[in-house]
Amino acid sequence: MNILLPDADLQLFEQHFLPAHARNLFDDLKQNIPWVQNKIKFYGKESLVPRLESWHGDSGMSYTYSGIQMNAKPWTNELLEIKKSIEPLARTQFNSVLINYYRDGRDRVAWHSDDEKELGLNPVIASISFGAERKFKLRHKRFKENQLKHEIILPNGSLLIMSGVTQHHWLHEIPRTAKPIGPRINLTFRVIRLQNKKQK
Description:
The protein is an alpha+beta fold. It has helices spanning 19-32, 77-90, 166-169; strands spanning 2-3, 9-13, 39-42, 45-48, 52-57, 62-65, 68-71, 96-102, 109-112, 125-131, 134-140, 149-154, 158-163, 170-174, 184-190. It has one domain: Alpha-ketoglutarate-dependent dioxygenase AlkB-like (Jelly Rolls), CATH 2.60.120.590. It has three helices and 15 strands.
């Protein structure tokens, strides 16, 4: 379904993968992906990123965000299966994917846009979710924090496609929650267009 927001192009497929298939893919990814917990610096202080990550893609693909540079690990069979299934819907041939593993409700990702220079002008981001449902919050950049916001629940096996000018106008986050919640794996497929460029 289309999610109607100003200055955005969002499509949500709530059950792109059936529950049993989604669970199998979650288990395969959890076991086979070489997870790392990167470190990030804020105001000169170094701290651990509040989730586990892994970056995969075509040979030579690299990606930099918040001062963290990642070089692509090879595609796995599971990643290629997922990639092949979403490319017709996204009308895009992806060359890389960032995978986040949220171990529980304490793991999160802060407000940001996927607008790094490597991704080009109007990037297509295809986001697959496996495991526990989490809130996906959006906030328009031109308005004060509480004036134009939206919230989506991303169920197990869902696909969210963000395209067009979405990243120019909207921030998004996965907030921390105190509620008991199971683990979640999220994959954001991308197209890296510029290499060896530092983030603005």
